[in-house]
Amino acid sequence: MSKPSKTAPQRSDHETRVTDDHHESLRLWLRMLSCTNLVEAHIRSQLRLRFQTTLPRFDLMAQLERHPEGLKMGELSRRMMVTGGNVTGITDQLVAEGLVVREDNPKDRRAYIVKLTKEGRRVFREWAVEHEDWVIRLFEGLGEKEKKQLYDLLARLKQFVGSLGTGN
Amino acid sequence: MSKPSKTAPQRSDHETRVTDDHHESLRLWLRMLSCTNLVEAHIRSQLRLRFQTTLPRFDLMAQLERHPEGLKMGELSRRMMVTGGNVTGITDQLVAEGLVVREDNPKDRRAYIVKLTKEGRRVFREWAVEHEDWVIRLFEGLGEKEKKQLYDLLARLKQFVGSLGTGN
DNA sequence: CCACAAATATTTAAGGTTAAAATATTGTGG
DNA sequence: CCACAATATTTTAACCTTAAATATTTGTGG
Predict the structure, then answer these.
(1) Closest by alpha carbon to A21, among B124, B23, B135?
(2) pLDDT under 50 in chain A at which residues?
(3) Does residue A41 approach strand C to less than 7 Å at its CB?
(4) Chain B residue numbers touching A162 (CB-CB < 8 A)
(5) Looking at beta carbons, which residues of chain B come within 8 Å of A61?
(6) What is the CA radius of gyration of chain A?
(7) What does the pLDDT look like over B105-157, one tens digit per residue?
(8) How would you class B9 by CB atoms within 10 Å of its CB: exposed for 0-12, middle for 13-18, buried for 19 or more?
(9) Residues 6+ apart with CB under 8 A from A17
């Protein structure tokens, strides 16, 4: 399907098809990237305006909110899909702001357990409600059915890309 | 739950554990974000390994390649969706590397015209071929029809989000 | 012509990001 | 017990990114 090939099919062959596919995938990727950038820019801007915070800070707290038992630095780094050194810096800030704590782990003194503080939980719950509102508004251009379609297509993409290994 | 099983692969990204029915848009957004991050990580890694360059550098050159007449700094910044100060730094590097030039514009001495050099065009053409190859492999998990569906859904999303204004 | 707003680009300060090196702890085989 | 690999985190250097402040030039109304 969709290999109509407006060009002279005098030799409709492998090369032609590969070339078409290249352009399709590339255009799809660029569109996906700009969509994500647009949404992300909105959210960053709102986090800054409304809560004087940043997306990585928010993201780290969101991970901890889903894991009340606490997470190690390395777990945070994997879940946030950033490198470990990065988590160190962001955690330092949040500790300084009193929103998270590093708890010593007597079982393994290499690894902390990072948790939200009481204040961190309180603050994050407020933020999360408003954050979800922004997201809902940003995706209002799609209907229920479209959202589900998009969700499912992205599931397939994610699974495939994830299966290719971390990318050396 | 209190014991982090070592065997569980644990997808480990933005998307884990948001299973409430009423949070469709949020889940969709988190999935979209992690898809984009996965693909982007692959590409950054390859650009670094294969060409010792970075995504912003590559992106700037890609914009110039599509506009042989040259672009002003501000145009680059809009197309790349980054702030102007950013483009200054990346352009400085590429000029130092001999891949782009700032041409003085006698019509308006506020604005340069930035273009690829001959060497820049040569190098970018090589890079672009391989870059397209990476992208097509990353999206091979989707069929033709699925790619088209995804492309169209993202078009709707992009148009809607774009219509909301810049947000601040 | 002149004052001044608008447009363009750069600089600055603060923070996010990475890969690689360094540090510290744990576990294991000999 | 000891050497040594594996694990967990931090540090470092380089780069990307932003928002705000600073020139510089252009255009316009008076």
Answers:
(1) B135
(2) 1-18, 167-168
(3) no
(4) 11, 38
(5) none
(6) 22
(7) 888 999 999 999 999 999 999 999 999 999 999 999 999 999 999 999 999 99
(8) exposed
(9) A3
pLDDT at B165: 64
Q: Which letter does DSSP use for residue A42 in this model?
A: H
| Token pair belonging to B111 | 């604005």
Q: Where are the alpha helices (DSSP H) in chain A?
A: 14-51, 55-65, 73-80, 84-96, 118-138, 144-163
Q: Residue holding tokens 């708890």? A: A103
- What pLDDT sits at residue A3? 38
Contact positions of strand D to protein Cβ (< 7 A): 7-13, 15-21, 24-27
Spell out the domains of chain B, with CATH numbers in brackets. 24-162 (1.10.10.10)
Residue with tokens 């959202």: A147
In a mutational test of the A interface, the residue from B137, B161, B164, B168 whose CB has the highest number of chain A CBs within 10 Å is B161
| Phi/psi of residue B110, nearest 5 degrees | -75, -35
Return the pLDDT at A86: 94
Question: DSSP class of residue A103?
Answer: E
Q: How many Cα atoms are found within 13 Å in the side-chain-facing hemisphere of A42?
A: 25
Residue nearest to nucleotide C24 (CA to C1'): A110
Which amino acid is located at A145 in the chain? K
Name the phi and psi angles at A104, rounded to 5: -70, 145
Inter-residue contact A91 to A73 (CB < 8 Å): yes
